[in-house]
Amino acid sequence: MLVLLRRVSAILVALFLPTLLAAQEDAFVGVWELWVESGYELRPAYGTLAIEDAGDGLALYVDGGPVNLLELDGNRIRFDIDWIDLRDAPRVNIYEGALDNGVLEGTATEGGKDRGAWRAVKVPERNPDAPPMPVDLSGVWGEPDHIGKESYDLTEAGRLADAAYDETLDDPILRCVSDGLIRMSHGPFDIEVLDAGNRIIMLHQDMNEVRRIWLDRDFPEGVGNMNRSMGYSIGHWEGSTLVIETRGLKRGVWDAPGMPISTDAEFTERWYLDDEGTLHIEWSMTDPENYHRPVLMHQVRYRQPDDKEIPPYACDPHSFFRGMDIEGRLEEYWGRSRNRL
What we know:
With 341 residues, the protein is α+β, with helices and mostly antiparallel strands. 16% of the residues lie in helices and 37% in strands. It contains 5 helices and 20 strands. The model has no long low-confidence stretch (mean pLDDT 90).
């Protein structure tokens, strides 16, 4: 009888265990808003965690870039996130936590050292038909906090562009040239927002760039050929969220390590205030030439005092070209013109 019971138990386990495991995995599947206690600026930051059914298990992505699922056991999960710190040095954190009542939360570590708490909740559905309810976004907003994900899901063309990039020669910042909208949007600089009626004007401390978001028009004909560092932006309100779409960007890179952008890239932002008046900016870049899936980022900025003035950005390319001359690399630099903005 005991042998029979064991056989029956084994059969039941074989029959129902896959279903049970699948149900446990299904509870994790979805798009989550990720909060970490210590992000890129070593302050609280946000990101997007996507957990997908890959057929033979779960696939995880943070801000559009793949991460490693290290363990999934019942309601517990363990994964890593590769990121870049303020010195552009690559780092990896381990996130371990549990799913309880629809909330993922736990602690992060790096090399065994505590990196603070983390939490994730499912992203709610949005209503694109919400009637406009504009809010006042004007003022000076401090430098952003974000997770700082390092690697992304590059296509073959994207990998080739990334491999060809030399940050010691090709980085536009070295020559005091605009680093472009996407990189500028998450760089460690303040911005000032001005309401000008049919357009919103943004003054960037970074490179003293000026951006206009038109609220009364569609994209002009031929926008894809504009080839602008800041692109051409139009916006509208979904409830109290300002939705901005940008096209017409220049080919280039959007971060210091050299993640590429093509001229067909489309950039979408969602600007909104939370209950504490903190500015959230969620953006998505779709660029099928270089990425298999959209690149995402969720930033937060804090309103500065009313009398805050953005100082002018000072930059002189002399030191870069002098350095190239001393190192005997000027000819190499001239020969890489096609690699630069």
